[in-house]
Write a structure and sequence with these properties.
Blueprint: H1 2-10, E1 15-22, H2 31-50, E2 55-62, H3 73-94, E3 101-103, E4 108-110
Parallel strand pairs: 1-2
Antiparallel strand pairs: 3-4
Helix pairs in contact: 2-3
Length: 113
C-alpha cells in the first residue's frame, strides 16, 4: 500500500481507496452511518491537506455475503431499501463540502477538486 501511495504522490494523482459496506439487519441509515461517514470525511480531508490531488474513495454497497452469513431472504431484500437510504444519507452529508462525495447506485466517489 505504501508503494502505491508513493507512486500516486510522485505522479501527483489522487490516492485511491476502496471499501465494502456490508448488509446487516436494518433498513435505514442511522447514527452509526453518520459517525462512519464523518470519520471517512475527516480522513479524506486530512489526505487533501497533505496531498493536493486528494483521494478518491469507492464504497461498494455489498449484499452478496449476506447469504453466507445465514441471513434470511427478507432481510437481504430489505437491504435494497437500506442502500437507497444510505445513498441519500451520504449525498446529503457530503454534498455541501469541498471534495465531497457523489454517488451512483453502488459507488460513492469524491468530486474532483
Amino acid at each position: 500500500m505504501l508503494e502505491l501511495a508513493k507512486r500516486c504522490t510522485q505522479k501527483k494523482k489522487p490516492l485511491e481507496f476502496f471499501m465494502l459496506w456490508g448488509v446487516w439487519k436494518k433498513t435505514r441509515a442511522n447514527a452509526a452511518e453518520a459517525e462512519a461517514l464523518e470519520i471517512i470525511s475527516e480522513m479524506l480531508a486530512q489526505v487533501k491537506r497533505v496531498h493536493a490531488p486528494g483521494c478518491r474513495l469507492t464504497i461498494i454497497l455489498a449484499d452478496s455475503h449476506a447469504e453466507l452469513n445465514l441471513m434470511d431472504k427478507a432481510s437481504i431484500y430489505a437491504y435494497d431499501a437500506y442502500m437507497g437510504s444510505f445513498e441519500r444519507f451520504a449525498q446529503a452529508k457530503a454534498s455541501p463540502r469541498p471534495g465531497s462525495a457523489t454517488s451512483s447506485r453502488k459507488t460513492l466517489l469524491p468530486r474532483a477538486a
